[in-house]
Amino acid sequence: MKLRSKITSKYQITIPKEIRESLKLSMEDVIEWSVDEKGIRIDAANKPFLKYEGFLNKGSTDIKSDIKKAWTERSKRYK
Predict the structure, then answer these.
(1) Is the residue at 52 inside a domain?
(2) C-beta of residue 17 within 8 angstroms of C-beta of residue 10
(3) Threshold 0.70, pTM exceeds
(4) What is the pLDDT of residues 9-61, one digit of tens each?
(5) Largest Cα–Cα distance in the chain?
(6) What are the residue boundaries of the SpoVT-AbrB domain, all occurrences included (predicted)?
């Protein structure tokens, strides 16, 4: 996906809607810029939970079963 933003006279840009939505950005959020030999990278800086994306094992789609399994696992730690 290639999107464009124009730099204003005050060096400001508008983040395209598609990017704001994909990064779940809202007003007052902070973005982080990094530059390397490949180009420019922009990340949502104040959304630390995003670094854990894909970290959790999603388990089954049966919520009651998942909760019971979690309780069982937790109770084993305290025996």
Answers:
(1) yes
(2) no
(3) no
(4) 999 999 999 988 887 888 888 888 899 999 988 887 776 555 555 656 655 66
(5) 66
(6) 5-50
